[in-house]
Design brief:
The complex is a heterodimer of chains A (247) and B (492).
Chain A (H helix, E strand, L loop, with lengths): L1 E10 L2 E11 L4 E5 L6 H9 L4 E10 L2 E2 L5 H7 L1 E4 L6 E5 H15 L7 H14 L4 H5 L1 E2 L5 H15 L3 E5 L7 H15 L5 E6 L12 E6 L2 E6 L2 H9 L1 H5 L1
Parallel strand pairs in A: 3-10, 3-11, 6-9, 9-10
Antiparallel strand pairs in A: 1-2, 1-4, 4-5, 7-8, 11-12
Helix pairs in contact in A: 2-3, 4-6, 6-7
Chain B lengths: L8 H11 L20 H10 L4 H16 L38 H10 L3 H8 L4 H10 L2 H14 L2 E4 H7 L1 H7 L10 H9 L2 E7 L11 H6 L7 E7 L4 E7 L10 E2 L2 E6 L4 E8 L13 E10 L5 E8 L4 E4 L2 E4 L5 E10 L4 E10 L5 E10 L4 E10 L7 E10 L5 E10 L5 E10 L2 H9 L4 H12 L1 H4 L4 H14 L6
Helix pairs in contact in B: 2-3, 3-10, 5-6, 8-9, 12-13, 13-15
């Protein structure tokens, strides 16, 4: 589904990704772990096409398409979802309006008919229910006045509604208490643990992986994958720390 | 009044030009124009054309003589090029553009905007000035001429007077005489005086005591608003306990060969009456380099004369190269209420200096001001607002919220509040913010699937929401689209 080959990227002319390669197949959950400053968030932003994250080499093929040739919204329409570490507030725009417009914009790019208000509401209600979120929250402006945990939960509701093929989840566990962590973890499994979908968890800690079992774990250090393994690698990292492994 | 206005060769040339347009909408009356330039003869010509009574002509002439002694105001934060008042037409200027055979001849850029606004095709033809489209479109909008008649009948049955101001001057001279120039005096300002002298047409509305106007006075106006833009004159009188909602303007881009616009709008609300006045202004703003565009100098004021009366102004200002406009409320009646909700968008090289005046003369009068300014490109937007509390006005309250949103770093937003309080019991609150659309917000929205311009439109509409929700429903949707369209190309 996703094939990253020798990806190099700079931010403000500073090289951050220095030849990163990674393959993710449908049905798989991968976790990328690494110390602060290794380039974890940069990987998410670069794949999603954030302006200012400049690709200087390498290639990324997503579902048979040259991902790097697409604009950010086209990548979203192709099925790529980025769960933000710090979800952004948009005053005056309700969650429902935001998601309906976003979903219909994606559908338009894919050549699908827009969803009616009623059909959209049905989907939104089901996803909110599944995440234990009141519909009232969906009527409120996007992330405005939400707690850290509510913002992350809202990211999962958005993911459920937009129903992507590939989710890049950037530190989705940060700022969550143990109950919220469980709810978010269950959300990821419910929405994304499917034969035709894949997940890349970007995380600093092992704890989210207790709820979302990765098939593969990779260690990112200094802009490259320095080690890959099974779920045990995460436990080893937790025990030994990054310094030893990255060395 | 019988003076022949055609005195020189230039005027004859203009007459010949007009003859080319004999199939135009208004070409059925001979020599339907005044020659270029502004003098007493121009004023007499206009008055004669409208079959006005003597008192009206006298009023105009007095205004004209006064105007000659006035100076154009220069206190606004606007850079206004010198205007040659002699180099303009003041009545039915010969149209330079030729009649169009079909929509195929219309500038594709304009058609694209019509499409984005979702304007029906027949209505598009009217707006673009396609030959013979008018009748069809009126039929299309009102279903048939008989429906339009029904519409007028319904108003008549309710006792509502809804006429062009010229007709009202002839048919209801006492009502007009009683209020015309009472809210905005002739000598109020340079542009108001000019309007008094040469106003071409406009609207008169009278809602009788206790009547709730049975419909929004808007749908009708949307189609009939062409060709009245330049020196429009509007007078609305809401008698005791009545209510009316009036919408002026159009979301569709309006081109006009006349660069200078100077409208005057006067509203009068008697005891317990309420007037809701909504404006969508989308006159041609000039091109991306700042060439051309309308200069819009408007005087709008409401007199809340009666106790417990209420006037609410809502405006969405996206057009014009220069906007100078301060819809105001004079709150004379005790417990009367004034509201001003405004979204003003400037892009490219547009300049807007707009705001309101809330004059609290009555006891326990209240006012609310919500202003949302959005500046992009090289434009400048200024909010200028006055809240004045007279010494005798006990228990006054005002709340002002003034927010500016910047797109890019070449534009400017300015806030100039004036607060004059002469009674210590007044409670005045003023909040102001300035923010930028952040890269975070844009990227977040784009990551969810919105194109860049869709993302800007969404964020801007969220910013302006408090104001947009004051608009009558059918226009709120179009106004939302309009905000997005006005800001196209302003990011990235």
């Amino acid at each position: 589904m996703l094939s990253i080959t020798n990806l190099q990227a700079t931010v403000a002319d500073k090289p951050i990704l220095k030849g990163l390669s990674l393959s993710i197949n449908a049905g798989e959950v991968h976790a990328i772990m690494g110390p602060n400053g290794a380039g974890k968030s940069t990987l998410g932003y670069t794949l999603a096409g954030r302006p200012g994250y400049e690709v200087t080499g390498g290639s990324v093929v997503f579902d048979g398409q040259d991902l790097l040739a697409l604009d950010p919204h086209e990548r979203a329409a192709a099925g790529l979802f980025l769960g933000f570490q710090y979800p952004v507030e948009i005053p005056g725009v309700s969650n429902l309006q935001f998601l309906r417009e976003s979903l219909n914009a994606q559908r338009k790019i894919r050549g699908e008919d827009p969803l009616s208000g009623a059909d959209f509401l049905k989907i939104a209600r089901a996803q909110a229910d599944a995440m234990g979120m009141e519909m009232d929250m969906l009527k409120r402006p996007v992330n405005v006045g939400f707690s850290g945990g509510e913002k992350k939960r809202n990211e999962m509701v958005q993911m459920g509604i937009l129903n992507p093929k590939l989710a890049l989840l950037d530190e989705t566990d940060s700022g969550l208490d143990i109950d919220a962590l469980r709810v978010v973890g269950e959300g990821i499994n419910r929405i994304m643990r499917k034969a035709d979908k894949a997940v890349l968890l970007i995380t600093h800690y092992q704890r989210l992986l207790d709820y979302v079992q990765p098939d593969f774990v990779h260690v990112l250090a200094e802009g490259k994958i320095v080690r890959s393994g099974g779920p045990d690698l995460a436990l080893e990292l937790e025990r030994e720390g990054y310094r030893e492994l990255a060395a | 009044m019988t003076d022949t206005p055609i005195k020189d060769a230039a005027a004859h040339a203009a007459a010949a030009k007009v003859a080319d347009y004999e199939h135009g909408w208004s070409a059925d009356i001979e020599q339907e124009f005044a020659p270029k330039g502004l003098n007493e003869d121009t004023v007499r010509f206009i008055s004669a054309k409208k079959n006005e009574p003597e008192w009206m002509l006298d009023w105009r002439l007095k205004a004209f003589r006064l105007w000659q002694t006035l100076e154009a105001p220069d206190w606004a934060k606007l850079n206004v090029p010198p205007i040659d008042y002699q180099d303009a037409y003041y009545y039915a200027a010969p149209k330079a553009k030729k009649k169009l055979e079909s929509l195929d001849e219309v500038d594709p850029e304009i058609l694209k905007v019509y499409e984005k606004l979702g304007i029906p095709i027949e209505e598009q033809k009217v707006l673009a000035g396609v030959e013979g489209a008018r009748k069809v479109a009126v039929d299309a909008v009102f279903d048939s001429v008989s429906v339009a008649t029904t519409f007028r009948d319904e108003l008549k049955k309710a006792g509502v007077i809804f006429l062009s101001i010229s007709e009202a001057i002839r048919e209801y001279p006492d009502l007009v005489k009683k209020w015309l120039g009472k809210v905005v005096p002739v000598r109020d300002n340079y542009f108001a005086a000019l309007n008094c002298a040469v106003f071409s047409d406009g609207t008169f509305v009278y809602i009788p005591e206790g009547v709730r106007c049975p419909m929004e006075l808007s749908t009708y106006f949307r189609i009939n608003a062409e060709n009245t833009g330049q020196f429009e004159r509007t007078l609305i009188v809401a008698d005791k306990g009545s209510y009316v909602s009036y919408l002026e303007g159009c979301t569709a881009p309006m081109r006009d060969e006349n660069q200078l616009h100077a409208a005057v709008v006067e509203l009068v609300a008697l005891d317990d009456a309420e007037i809701k006045y909504s404006t969508v202004q989308n006159w041609y703003p000039g091109d991306a380099e700042g060439r051309g565009g309308i200069y819009n100098f408007v005087t709008k004021r409401a007199l809340c004369q009666g106790a417990r009366s209420k006037v609410s102004w809502t405006q969405v200002e996206t057009g014009s190269a220069i906007t100078w406009k301060y819809p105001s409320c004079v709150l004379n009646g005790d417990d009367s209420v004034g509201e001003f909700y405004s979204v003003a968008v400037t892009n490219n090289f547009q300049q807007a200096d707009t705001g309101t005046k809330m004059i609290h003369n009555g006891k326990r009068t209240r006012s609310t001001i919500v202003s949302k300014g959005i500046s992009a490109g090289h434009s400048n937007g200024t909010y200028r607002g006055l809240v004045r509390v007279a010494p005798q006005a006990e228990g006054v309250r005002n709340f002002t919220q003034c927010d500016s949103l910047l797109l890019g770093n070449q534009c400017g937003a300015h806030t100039v509040p004036y607060i004059e309080v002469k009674n210590p019991s007044a409670q005045i609150e003023h909040e102001a913010t300035t923010s930028k659309i952040s890269d975070d917000q844009l990227f977040y929205a784009m990551q969810r699937g919105l194109g860049q311009e869709e993302a800007v439109a969404l964020i801007v509409n969220g910013f302006a929401k408090e104001v947009l929700q004051q608009l009558p429903m059918e226009f709120a949707v179009e106004a939302q689209k309009l905000l997005g369209i006005s800001l196209e190309g302003s990011v990235g």
